[in-house]
Structures are given as C-alpha cells and as structure tokens.
Design a protein that fits this description.
Elements (H helix, E strand, L loop, with lengths): L2 H14 L4 H8 L3 H8 L7 H10 L23 H10 L4 E5 L5 H13 L3 E6 L11 H6 L7 E6 L7 H11 L7 E7 L4 H6 L10 E2 L7
Parallel strand pairs: 1-4, 1-5, 2-3, 3-4
Helix pairs in contact: 5-6
Length: 216
C-alpha cells in the first residue's frame, strides 16, 4: 500500500467517524498540517506518526504478501493510471491539452482511476464563466484548499485569453499552490501558446502538457 492509498484510507475513516482534521489532531497530537500531508499522500516522515493517526481511527498497518496494489512502480510505464497516480504523489498540479488531442477514452480512463481512489471529478465550462467567475459559487467553492482531493476539467479554456479572468484564476491556483486540486485546461483552436507560453500572459508556464505523461 503506497502513501496515496494510506492517505485515502485515513481521510475516508476519519470522515466516517465524523472527525475534522483539527479534532483528529486533538486526539493524536499529530499536527493538523501533518494529517493533511498524510491524507494528500505527501507525508514521508515518521512511521510512529502514521501509527498514531491510524490507531485513533481504528486502523492499523498489516504486513501481507505483495499483491496487485496501486503503487506507482507497479503500474505500467506510460499508462494513464501511472500518470494519474504520479500527479498526486509527485504534486504535479496543473496540465493543459488541446481538445482535438484528448479522446473520450483518455478522459474516461483518467476519471475512472480517480474514482477508484474516491477522488472527486468536477467539470467547468470557462466560456460560461467569463463574466461571473468572481461570484460563481460552484467555481469558487471548488478552488478552495480543502481536505478532499479533487480533479478538475476546465473546458473551453481559450476563454482565458481574457487576461482579467486568467489573472484571477492564476491568483487562486498559483500564488499559493492548492495541493488537494489537480486541474486540466482543455482549449479549442490554436490558443495554447497565447494562454500558457506567452511571457505576458497571467498563466505563463503555469501548466504541463498532459499528453507528455503517458502513451497515446
């Protein structure tokens, strides 16, 4: 079982018990930030701290013969599953891709792997938010740093040619990285360079090319 899997189990059982991260801290004296790192699959510190948290929510480490577990090195090189797993473990936060280059099969595989991890998947059409992004409840709610992991698809990201919209989104996503989010910006037409590679653009070099991370 890898760190991401352990984190998902901690988050799942903590919520079943109706505990917040702060309440779990009060039970274990393991700092809330450390618990957050554990749940996000990023904690690589003391085994004893893991044990304290697991014990408090009724879980324990069990040593078993190795089976088909979702560890990154067990997943096929170049596979979409390995990419998704790596994006969470290695904190690769934001991606871009042209709509003509991502197939429904690729998206479905990404969504399916996130679903197996109990990771929420959200979709937003940025064309519909050009004039309401500052007040849209769903969008602003999704861009908060929370305990739950969320994968977001931003469709029609060519709307970010609007520098005010792009600047606002940059301030929400990159000034302080939100570790519980992974975002994919899907663009129509030849707009990737203008949005992500123009030195004067708010989202300059803020994303990675999604298709560089797996075979397609």
């Amino acid at each position: 079982m890898d760190r991401v899997e352990i984190g998902i189990q901690i988050r799942t059982y903590r919520k079943k018990l109706g505990l917040t991260q702060k309440q779990l801290y009060e039970k274990t004296h393991v700092h809330k930030n450390t618990i957050s790192e554990m749940e996000n699959g990023r904690f690589s510190g003391s085994f004893d701290l893991f044990e304290k948290v697991l014990d408090a929510i009724g879980l324990a480490f069990v040593v078993t013969a190795k089976t088909n577990m979702h560890e990154i090195h067990d997943l096929p090189t170049g596979s979409i599953e390995r990419f998704v797993e790596g994006s969470w473990v290695l904190s690769i936060l934001r991606f871009h891709v042209e709509a003509s280059k991502i197939t429904p099969t690729i998206k479905r595989q990404i969504d399916n792997h996130n679903n197996t991890r109990n990771i929420s998947v959200l979709e937003f059409d940025l064309n519909t938010l050009v004039h309401t992004y500052r007040t849209d409840v769903s969008l602003n709610g999704a861009l908060k740093e929370e305990e739950d992991l969320v994968w977001i698809w931003f469709y029609n990201s060519q709307a970010l040619i609007n520098s005010n919209f792009a600047g606002w989104l940059r301030s929400r996503l990159t000034v302080r990285d939100i570790d519980n989010l992974r975002c994919v910006f899907i663009t129509e037409g030849n707009t990737v360079d203008s949005i992500f590679f123009d030195y004067s653009a708010p989202l300059y070099l803020a994303t990675k090319n999604l298709l560089n991370y797996f075979d397609n």
